[in-house]
Design brief:
The protein is of the alpha/beta class and 130 residues long. A four-stranded parallel β-sheet has the order 2-1-3-4. Strand 3, helix 3 and strand 4 form a beta-alpha-beta unit. The mean pLDDT is 85.
Length: 130
């Protein structure tokens, strides 16, 4: 029976690996977009689903819209809009008239995560598709 048992790992490596896990958890739990309402718009459901999970993990309140008939007046006013090249036309029209709502690419989200904090929208603003 003893031939089938695996040797126990050295105590020092176990303690070190647990400490690394604790540090990783603390870093990843930081909600850098907490308090921010983000609207994700795209006709691509996979895009909105994927980015919703990323933004949720960063602490943002997220609304997503994929329907061509969705209108901005029907939604809670977002602090920022994240989109791709496939944004619904009606929402693009509504957002074109609202210069107070920044429309950014997913690169803004990535750079917030990389920098471990919110960064300015300026370099990440994108044009809405026509």
């Amino acid at each position: 029976i003893n031939d089938c048992l695996l040797p126990s790992p050295p105590a020092t490596s176990t303690r070190l690996s647990n400490r690394v896990k604790d540090e990783d958890t603390n870093v990843s739990c930081r909600k850098i977009l907490s308090g921010l309402h983000v609207l994700i718009i795209s006709t691509d459901k996979f895009f909105t689903d994927d980015w919703q999970s990323v933004l949720d993990s960063l602490g943002a309140a997220v609304t997503k819209r994929t329907a061509a008939s969705a209108r901005l007046a029907q939604l809670r006013a977002p602090d920022v809009v994240v989109t791709d090249s496939k944004a619904p036309t009606a929402l693009c029209t509504d957002l074109s008239a609202r210069h107070d709502i920044p429309v950014v690419s997913t690169n803004w989200v990535i750079q917030c995560a990389v920098n471990n904090g919110r960064i300015a929208f300026n370099n990440f603003k994108c044009k809405l598709p026509n």
